[in-house]
Specification:
Structural class: alpha+beta
Helix content: 55-70%
Distance between the termini: 59 Å
Number of strands: 7
Radius of gyration: 25 Å
Length: about 375
């Protein structure tokens, strides 16, 4: 497999391992990156014996201007001033392309910046064209199976998803997964990231049967590689549980027990202090019914809200959180009710222990 060039790796460095639907950060002009680009430009100039000294000077000035524009547009982008950043990004791209050619790494960085600004402005079609160009160039200059190509595929998958082209989005996520499997193997966090991204796509498009095994695989791998307290592992685990709770499958309790068994780790110091339970609705001493706010009534809000709770040794809820991204109009009253719930203490070998589980609330439109 061809190695990604140093300068392009610098552009892509901070984009590796991104969560589903997050934006690629702007490609800041790393000092080493700029130095490499200037060296490349100087070498190009020295090889062109017919190029005049004036042209050399013009190219150097153009690249200097492009770097200054890039610094400014990144500042504007970080301030949310996308309309002001857009013309600067276009100008920086024009200057670099004219001086260095369409396939140069510096040009790719400028394209990436422009694509991200279009994404922030929700001009997804314009951003998609640029990302597709980036992908074609990368495939030509580095190789279609290089791990860097998967980063552009992730971005392309997001852009096509938000435009409703689910077929193209799925294809991009699946190809990114295949590339990372070949590049890193199945025992790597980048492979786990692609598993999770594809699972998120299937969940968001209602293809729960396809999503569930991917969440399981991603959670098991992330726990192994990152540890039981890592946020990425916890998110994959919660997504799996969430899917099981909301689909209401017939053998849900057994499925969840099997999944929890696969995640068990005797070396985890927290394993003896906290148990992970299933649905706790039927084990409560007191389970207040959530209100149905007037705002929810006007919006005809409905659906299932899944609240994860941590219960202390006395049966009090000490923490509660929405794990399935429920309707905000319904999540707030659900959290209030969950925090007020009381449970019988859970004992392990005769000793009270903390227990985590979920409370599900089903809302019907009124």
């Amino acid at each position: 497999m061809k190695q990604t060039p140093l300068t392009l790796r610098l552009i892509l460095r901070s984009t590796l391992g991104l969560a589903l639907f997050s934006a690629l950060p702007l490609a800041a002009p790393d000092p080493v990156f700029i130095q490499g680009a200037w060296q490349s430009n100087n070498q190009l100039i020295s090889q062109e014996s017919t190029q005049s000294q004036e042209q050399n000077s013009s190219s150097a000035e153009a690249l200097k201007e492009a770097s200054q524009l890039t610094l400014t547009l990144i500042k504007l982008y970080n301030e949310g001033k996308y309309d002001e950043a857009l013309p600067l990004a276009k100008r920086a791209l024009e200057l670099r392309e004219r001086a260095l050619g369409a396939d140069h790494e510096m040009v790719q960085g400028a394209l990436l910046n422009l694509a991200e600004i279009y994404t922030a402005k929700k001009k997804y079609g314009e951003a998609q064209k640029l990302v597709e160009r980036l992908l074609r160039t990368y495939e030509k200059t580095v190789g279609p199976e290089d791990a860097g190509a998967a980063i552009f595929l992730d971005k392309l998958a997001f852009l096509t998803y938000v435009q409703g082209d689910f077929g193209k989005s799925e294809a991009a996520y699946k190809r990114a997964l295949s590339i990372r499997e070949k590049a890193f193997g199945q025992n790597h966090k980048e492979f786990a990231t692609s598993l999770y991204s594809l699972a998120e796509f299937y969940r968001s498009t209602g293809q729960f049967e396809k999503a569930q095994p991917l969440y399981e695989q991603a959670a098991i791998l992330r726990r192994k590689l990152l540890g039981p307290k890592d946020p990425e592992y916890l998110k994959a685990k919660e997504r799996y549980f969430c899917l099981a709770y909301t689909t209401r499958e017939a053998n849900r309790e057994r499925t969840l027990r099997d999944f929890a068994a696969k995640l068990s780790d005797p070396s985890d110091p927290a394993a003896g202090n906290t148990l992970e339970g299933a649905v706790l609705n039927g084990r409560a001493i007191s389970l207040p019914r959530p209100s149905y706010p007037e705002e929810a009534r006007r919006a005809h809000a409905h659906g299932t809200v899944v609240i994860k709770v941590t219960i202390d040794e006395r049966g009090n809820v000490i923490d509660a959180s929405d794990i399935c991204g429920g309707d905000p109009l319904l999540v707030k009253p659900s959290l209030e009710s969950a925090r007020a719930a009381r449970f019988t203490p859970t004992k392990l070998y005769g000793q009270p222990v903390k227990v985590t589980g979920v409370i599900t609330y089903n809302f019907v439109a009124r």
